[in-house]
């Protein structure tokens, strides 16, 4: 009868569902092949990995999320990149590092003659110039990228292999920024050569004076290139199944094949699957549906991936990423204006234990804004230990005591009796921020400090941060691994106008140091300058620096050539020995 | 359709024996063992919510310290109500660390906010009967205190829904014609809005607070109650005793609230009970998604939220979820029992 | 009848405007600036509260330019009016996230949500109706009482709990692996798989989401079915049919069933929006790219065009659903007088 039929359907589904073994490839995985046996790199096989979120779009200039840049990094190439191990700048599309003029304002790049795009067309100086114009064009929807190139005032073609770029003021990172410009094919992104007549100098003028053609270019560029990137890189964009995956195929005619100094790639196809639920991703990794997870959650890294079976199939890598979390005290707040209070707060924070518990040991306490591995990092900085007694002493010296017996410290500030009450603002969904704030709240309660925690939607949170509407925030900065320049974060001029100095830190000596740093082109001198900078910050504690984070990645053992670099892993350079290749060849 | 005779008879019973009616309801309700069980379970949770501070607390009931007797839990109530102060020696003190103190603690000697970074994510054990979460907070304490949140949200949200729904439904049902038309269209608009979506939107976008959550759950769930009230008013309004009350010169307000309303409440009561269960479910979904509830507050839904990202910590999933389930089930059973008692011929109430 | 239909269709318009206006106001009046969000690189940083230092060079002009592009600098009522006007040409605008046409994004995901909801509805009805019939015809038997209790229990199980328990215990992880913890199909689902292979693969993936989405539906509906059948069984004409000597089976199927199915039809309209709402949790937890997930993400990223479009689409579907079920009701039960029946 009816009642039985639904049971029957369910039974069928159950049986056939379980019978489908296509995702389970467990039993017959061989143990890893040693490097000697692995032999030379060969092409073939696929690499399937997980992006935690679907990229919004793949327009090389207008997309602003990091998932897109992961994908685009395989399709487009810059003039200069960095040596993976030393992080020194090295030429890529450029034939050599640029010549820099005496006044540090003019950069002359010589372009390689053997580069061609994925459709076969050669890359010429015209494309280089076009790439610069596209960024500078005010109608291209990339206002946040453009701001980086505000210092570029002009660019021109000198001859068939040379481009000259002129900047506004000397800044040691200019070379790096200019080198980072992705090379776009003009014939593809501007088939009608709408930008042909306008010069880079024109583009820096008032947008209203620009011709209709320029406007048309901008509109066209914004609208029609979200899902069809084409560049000179080793991987060709193939398909994008919305909500599911992006497929890229290796370009067999890649111009860089076999060339010195150019990253060689072997995997025939890269598939990015979008899986937001990280447990689902791990389950998929274990069942063979993924080859690589770049970022396991700390719990997964420490617990879900330790079985013998897992170790036989996968290699795990733990490595630092350029990123640090911090507690930002609003330096304009009446309570936190006093640097002694900020120092005390750092003594109240048990950073070591937090790193062990909340971060599952996958973090190192840091005391400054510089990436661990950089030569500029001052290893001799004083690291504030967890010492609540010392903190209380400092507070007492600063005038805090419980004068009214209500259990909360207070002090007379600006003529008013101010109790030590404040609020942590954190974004919704940020686990580390939430845990840190709750732990601190609990700890501070014992000493007469009343902290509350307010969780806000990310967008609102960003708003409040920018507008300095907070007492304390717990956030993190993701940094590039190259030479540091904290001007925008700690210079006093950046405290106004919604700059990145949202804690309103103002120290004239630090200001001078940061300004000098920008103009200093000698790396050794910069290291000295920066050491002083870090020492001052350590004393001022505008932030309570928390941790540098470690990533844990898991890679299926059949992949060879997996190495950890300061900037992370480089999946496209991996390869699989022939006998272990699983996925078929791409047609 | 009932005949006019029985209508009048019902009406008479309804008006004159209001007090008698409710005790009769209780008698009949008691005869349904399942509903009765539900009722007792509800009582247990209400008790747990009211006396949470005495069931799970890091302060002891009684402490003999340095020769003096203290009653910390009671005193914390006094201090909270600003009727007393902590003696200096007890200010901000951790009772468990007091040397030489003889204290008697509640059965669960933790508050849900007690963080212990040395015991994170422990499975159920002698020290923590339901285990701990990732900050070392005792899950059982979280559940006991969480019942306060769930129940209070349930009651207040439904209270708001009843207020809005009854008033609007009464007006629509009593005055009829144009008023009814306009108000009924309004009902339709509210029905057509994807409520859960709206809830998520508001909860996600505004700073989280319990009051906000209570308010928006209430403000999005009153339509059912409104419609019942309207139907009842429409029906009762034409009964003889009402027309005579009006003829005798009663004002609209008096007629509505004194004569019609008490008798229109039957379906509303059932909706209230079911509504509380619904509100608890919605609240747990919201805090599961991580919205609507302040960070420091531990609720059943927030523990479940942690469970979904820490799947090996099964105790985080099993216990709070089970608590929600039992509470909701209990309310449903009570609601069903009430419905059967109040009018076995009422249909389509779900 | 025709007049009634026209009247109802006309009434749809103010209701629709009411719904979308409320949605519009809620979204726009809530705090949060999509321009700032774009500047910080989207929602990606929310999980660990991180902003990439690459994004630090944000300038007010850049933000203003971005806002001007989407007409966000005009007064609110003008924006709403423009949006309404664009509706007539079916142009929902472009998403803030990636400049893709909103309509395109929605139509991409409709099949997924539809699939999920269709199967859920199917399961709900296939399970509930027979269960309800059985319960009613064998009233107060052990089976009836057992199913009633089970229905209650199922109804009380919170969706978030059931879904979490599923993910913890049977989707890989530390315990059992019976079903995949997410996705619509296996990774290497190739185009050249047999239809059957593809079907079973998708069924395996969708099994849990469908069950989770529908269990409270079939608990509730079976109760309704039972109640309405009981109601009908009590009617005089059923007694008459029995007295006439008709077999019980015929009585049940020919007379009772048709009349007790009526209320179930009307319920369809109210179940539908509930499904789309309930999908949000399921879609998020099981990584299913449907409308619910799109809606939630768009709300969080203040992607106004997408949110408004979704609201418009779902409210139209709901309103039309209500209309259809009311019409069906009128068709099936000629006793009901239009416009004057108790709602």
Which features characterize this protein?
heterotrimer, A: 587 residues, alpha+beta, seven-stranded mixed beta sheet, four-stranded mixed beta sheet, 30% helix, globular, B: 350 residues, mainly alpha, three-stranded antiparallel beta sheet, 14 helices, 3% strand, disordered N terminus, disordered C terminus
Give me the number of helical elements of chain C: 12
User: What would you call the shape of chain B?
Assistant: elongated
Rg estimate of chain C, integer Å:
25 Å
How confident is the prediction overall: mean pLDDT of chain C? 76
Largest sheet of chain C: none
Task: Catalogue the unreliable spans of chain B.
Answer: 1-9, 11-18, 345-350
Mean pLDDT of chain B: 80
**H and E order of chain B:** HHHHEEHEHHHHHHHHH
The largest β sheet of chain B comes out as: 3 strands, antiparallel
Compute the number of strand runs of chain B: 3
Question: In order across it, which strands form the biggest sheet of chain B?
Answer: 2-1-3
- What is the SS-derived class of chain B? mainly alpha
**Helix percentage range of chain B:** 55-70%
The rough form of chain C would be described as globular
Structure explained in plain terms:
The complex is a heterotrimer of chains A (587), B (350) and C (343). Chain A has 587 residues and is an alpha+beta fold. Chain A has 20 helices and 19 strands. Chain A has helices at 2-19, 35-38, 66-72, 125-136, 143-146, 174-179, 186-189, 200-203, 212-224, 278-286, 298-304, 308-313, 339-348, 351-357, 388-397, 431-445, 458-466, 487-490, 508-519, 523-540; strands spanning 46-51, 80-82, 89-91, 99-100, 106-110, 152-159, 162-167, 235-241, 245-250, 269-274, 292-293, 314-329, 363-365, 410-413, 416-419, 421-427, 450-456, 472-478, 543-556. In chain A, strands 11, 12, 13, 16, 17, 18 and 19 form a seven-stranded mixed beta sheet that branches. In chain A, strands 1-10-9-8 form a four-stranded mixed beta sheet, with no helix packed on it. A four-stranded antiparallel beta sheet of chain A has the order 4-5-7-6, with helices on one face. In chain A, helix 13 runs antiparallel to helix 15. The radius of gyration of chain A is 27 Å and the shape is globular. With 350 residues, chain B is mostly helical. Helices cover 66% and strands 3% of the residues of chain B. Chain B has 14 helices and three strands. A three-stranded antiparallel beta sheet of chain B has the order 2-1-3. In chain B, helix 6 (139-175) packs antiparallel against helix 7 and helix 6 (139-175) runs parallel beside helix 9. The model of chain B is unreliable at 1-9, 11-18 and 345-350 (pLDDT under 50). With 343 residues, chain C is mainly α. The radius of gyration of chain C is 25 Å and the shape is globular. The chains are: A alpha+beta (587), B mainly alpha (350), C mainly alpha (343). Chains in contact: A-B, A-C, B-C. The interface between B and C is large, with 52 and 63 residues.
């Amino acid at each position: 009868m009816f009642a039985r039929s639904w049971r029957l359907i369910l039974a069928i589904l159950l049986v056939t569902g379980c019978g489908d073994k296509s995702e389970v490839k467990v039993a017959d995985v061989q143990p890893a092949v040693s490097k000697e046996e692995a032999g030379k790199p060969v092409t073939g096989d696929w690499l399937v990995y997980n992006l935690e979120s679907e990229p919004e779009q793949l327009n090389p200039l207008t997309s602003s999320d990091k998932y897109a840049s992961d994908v685009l990094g395989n399709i487009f190439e810059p003039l200069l990149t960095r040596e993976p191990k030393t992080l020194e700048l090295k030429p890529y599309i450029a034939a050599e590092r640029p010549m820099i003029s005496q006044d540090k304002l003019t950069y002359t790049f010589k372009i390689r003659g053997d580069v061609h795009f994925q459709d076969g067309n050669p890359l010429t100086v015209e494309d280089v110039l076009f790439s610069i114009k596209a960024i500078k064009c005010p109608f291209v929807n990339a206002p946040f990228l453009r701001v980086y190139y505000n210092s570029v005032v002009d660019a021109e073609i000198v001859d068939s292999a040379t481009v000259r770029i002129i900047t506004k003021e000397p800044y040691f990172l200019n070379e790096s920024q200019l080198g980072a410009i992705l090379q776009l094919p003009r014939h593809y992104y501007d088939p009608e050569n709408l930008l042909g007549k306008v010069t880079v100098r024109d583009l820096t003028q008032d947008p209203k004076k620009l011709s209709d053609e320029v406007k048309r270019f901008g509109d066209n560029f914004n609208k029609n290139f979200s899902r069809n990137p084409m560049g000179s890189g080793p991987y060709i964009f193939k398909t994008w199944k919305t909500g599911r995956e992006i497929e890229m195929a290796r370009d067999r005619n890649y111009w860089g094949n076999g060339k010195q100094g150019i990253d060689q790639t072997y995997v025939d196809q890269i598939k990015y699957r979008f899986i937001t639920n990280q447990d689902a991703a791990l389950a998929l990794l274990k069942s063979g549906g993924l080859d690589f997870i770049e970022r396991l959650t700390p719990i997964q890294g420490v617990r879900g991936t330790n079985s013998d079976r897992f170790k036989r199939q996968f290699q795990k890598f733990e490595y630092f990423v350029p990123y640090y979390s911090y507690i930002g005290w609003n330096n304009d707040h009446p309570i936190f204006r006093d640097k002694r209070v900020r120092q005390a707060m750092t003594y109240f924070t048990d950073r070591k234990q937090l790193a062990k518990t909340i971060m599952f040991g996958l973090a190192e306490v840091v005391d400054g804004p510089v990436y661990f591995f950089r030569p500029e990092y001052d290893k001799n900085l004083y690291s504030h230990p967890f010492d609540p007694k010392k903190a209380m002493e400092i507070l007492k010296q600063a005038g805090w005591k419980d004068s009214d017996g209500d259990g909360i410290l207070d002090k007379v500030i600006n003529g008013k009796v101010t109790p030590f009450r404040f609020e942590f603002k954190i974004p919704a969904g940020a686990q580390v921020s939430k845990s840190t704030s709750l732990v601190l709240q609990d700890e501070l309660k014992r000493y007469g400090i009343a902290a509350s925690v307010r969780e806000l939607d990310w967008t609102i949170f960003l708003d409040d941060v920018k507008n300095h509407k907070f007492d304390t925030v717990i956030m993190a900065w993701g940094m590039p691994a190259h030479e540091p320049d904290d001007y925008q974060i700690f210079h006093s001029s950046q405290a106004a106008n919604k700059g990145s100095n949202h804690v309103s830190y103002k120290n004239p000596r630090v200001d001078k140091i940061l300004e000098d740093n920008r103009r200093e082109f000698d790396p050794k001198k910069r290291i000295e300058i920066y050491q002083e900078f870090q020492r001052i910050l350590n004393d001022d504690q505008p932030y309570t620096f928390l941790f540098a984070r470690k990533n844990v990645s898991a890679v299926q053992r059949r992949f060879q050539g997996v190495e950890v670099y300061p900037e992370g892993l480089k999946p496209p350079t991996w390869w699989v020995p022939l006998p272990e290749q699983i996925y078929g060849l791409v047609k | 359709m009932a005949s006019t005779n029985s209508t009048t008879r019902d009406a008479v019973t309804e008006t004159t024996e209001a007090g008698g009616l409710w005790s009769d309801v209780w008698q009949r309700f008691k005869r349904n063992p399942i509903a009765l069980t539900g009722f007792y379970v509800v009582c247990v949770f209400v008790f747990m919510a009211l006396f949470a501070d005495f069931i799970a607390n890091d302060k002891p009931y009684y402490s003999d310290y340095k020769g003096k007797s203290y009653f910390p839990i009671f005193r914390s109530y006094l201090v909270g109500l600003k009727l007393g102060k902590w003696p200096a020696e007890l200010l901000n003190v951790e009772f468990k660390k007091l040397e030489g103190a003889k204290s008697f603690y509640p059965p669960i000697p933790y508050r849900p906010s007690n963080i212990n970074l040395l015991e994170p994510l422990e499975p159920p054990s002698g020290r923590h009967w339901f285990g701990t979460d990732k900050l070392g907070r005792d899950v059982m304490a979280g559940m006991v205190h969480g019942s306060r949140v769930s129940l209070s949200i349930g009651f207040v949200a439904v209270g708001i829904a009843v207020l809005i729904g009854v008033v609007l439904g009464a007006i629509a049902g009593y005055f009829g014609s144009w008023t009814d038309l306009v108000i009924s269209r309004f009902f339709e608009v509210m029905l057509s809005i994807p409520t859960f979506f709206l809830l998520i939107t508001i909860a996600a976008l505004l700073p989280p607070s319990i009051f906000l959550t209570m308010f928006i759950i209430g403000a999005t769930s009153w339509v059912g109650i409104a419609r019942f009230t309207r139907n009842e008013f429409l029906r009762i309004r034409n009964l003889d005793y009402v027309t005579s009350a009006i003829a005798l010169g009663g004002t609209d307000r008096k007629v509505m609230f004194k004569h019609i309303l008490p008798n229109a409440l039957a379906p509303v009561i059932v909706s209230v009970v079911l509504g509380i269960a619904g509100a608890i479910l919605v609240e747990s979904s919201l805090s599961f998604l991580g919205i609507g509830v302040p960070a420091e507050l531990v609720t059943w839904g927030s523990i479940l939220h942690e469970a979904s990202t820490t799947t090996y910590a099964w105790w985080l999933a099993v216990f709070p979820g089970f608590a929600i389930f039992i509470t909701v089930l209990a309310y449903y059973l009570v609601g069903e029992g009430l419905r059967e008692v109040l009018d076995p011929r009422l249909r389509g109430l779900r | 009848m025709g007049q009634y239909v026209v009247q109802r269709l006309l009434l749809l318009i103010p209701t629709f405007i009411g719904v979308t206006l409320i949605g519009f106001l809620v979204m726009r009046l809530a705090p949060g600036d999509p321009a700032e969000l774009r500047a910080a690189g989207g929602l990606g940083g929310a999980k660990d509260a991180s902003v990439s230092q690459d994004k630090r060079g944000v300038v007010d002009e850049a933000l203003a330019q971005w806002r001007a592009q989407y007409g966000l600098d005009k007064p609110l009522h003008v924006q709403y009016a423009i949006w309404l006007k664009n509706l007539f040409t079916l142009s929902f605008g472009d998403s803030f996230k990636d400049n893709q046409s909103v309509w395109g994004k929605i139509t991409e995901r409709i099949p997924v949500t539809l699939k999920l909801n269709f199967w859920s509805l199917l399961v709900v009805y296939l399970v509930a109706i027979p269960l309800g019939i059985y319960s009613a015809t064998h009233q107060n038997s052990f089976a009836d009482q057992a199913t009633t209790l089970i229905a209650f229990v199922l109804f009380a199980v919170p969706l978030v709990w059931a879904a979490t328990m599923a993910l913890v215990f049977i989707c890989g992880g530390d315990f059992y692996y019976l079903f995949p913890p997410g996705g619509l199909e296996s990774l290497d689902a190739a185009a050249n798989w047999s239809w059957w292979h593809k079907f079973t693969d998708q069924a395996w993936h969708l099994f849990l989401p469908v069950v989770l989405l529908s269990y409270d539906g079939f608990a509730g509906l079976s109760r309704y079915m039972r109640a309405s059948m009981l109601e009908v069984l009590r009617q005089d004409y059923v007694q008459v049919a029995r007295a006439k000597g008709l077999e019980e089976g015929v009585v049940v199927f020919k007379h009772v069933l048709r009349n007790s199915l009526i209320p179930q039809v009307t319920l369809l309209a109210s179940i539908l929006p509930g499904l789309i709402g309930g999908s949000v949790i399921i879609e998020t937890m099981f990584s299913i790219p449907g409308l619910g997930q799109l809606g939630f993400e768009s709300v969080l990223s203040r992607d106004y065009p997408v949110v408004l479009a979704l609201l418009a689409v779902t409210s139209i579907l709901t309103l039309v659903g209500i209309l259809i079920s009311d019409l069906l009701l009128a068709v099936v039960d000629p006793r009901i007088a239009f416009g004057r029946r108790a709602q």
